[in-house]
Amino acid sequence: MTGPAQRDPRPLPDRLSMVDRHVLVTGAASGLGLAMAEGLLQCGAAVTMLDRDAEELAASAAALAGAGGTVQQVVCDVSRPGEVEDAVGGAAAESGRLDAVFANAGIAGGPGISSAEGRLYDLDWSAFDGALAVNLVGTLATVRAAARAMRPAGRGSIVVTVSTAGLRADNMVGYGYSASKGALANLVRQAAVDLAPDGIRVNGIAPGPFYTNIGGRGPIEPALEKQWADTVLLRRMGIRQEIQGIALLLASDASSFMTGAVHPVDGGAMVGAFGP
Question: Which of 108, 143, 146, 202 is the most exposed place for a label (fewest CB within 10 A)?
Fold first, then answer.
């Protein structure tokens, strides 16, 4: 068991700083992963971006070159645990440290149950298996590889992208997404218990509806946008930059007494969308 913590004499801005810290983000070529990488770079971190889309990853990494910090990119399919182990271990070895890892990569895995083709009666097993391979197996592989790399230093922060759909039923998502994200919520708790003696913290972020590419490329249809917005207390969808604050907090030393929790970033969707 770890001993009592000593008071950190640094002021809060210094504890939030990511200067001289190395962070790895999966699913970093677009969406929330890209926003996380951008925000951490702006705060001085060296960021390794992982994604399976080599072309989009290269373009996104190039676009962030002037954001601050330094950027590295690694093409990796998280559904293949061996690739994850090599990518995370290699990035840690090259940098000489690994301070935080965002296990963020995920896919939708089929239509939601609000559509006829997404209901249980016609469940597409290949789509279901694909969602579990990326969202669950891929995340578990990332968490394990991160823990292995962090253990020698006796410290580190692992952050898992869960979803509000992993905390409650959601008719806008399908069975593969719901089942995998629900499992991730408990994976966060299980890994937090397991890794705490090694000084490694594990937390989750549960985004509500954000503007990302997970549901497909191109502008969102107005009717669908309204449908999502109506589930949110603030009556709108989130923009990617609104994930950056919680990402910075959980990656930094400012969250040194936080582990084993899943934190909604959802505009109040978990509370319930009341009113007109």
Answer: 108
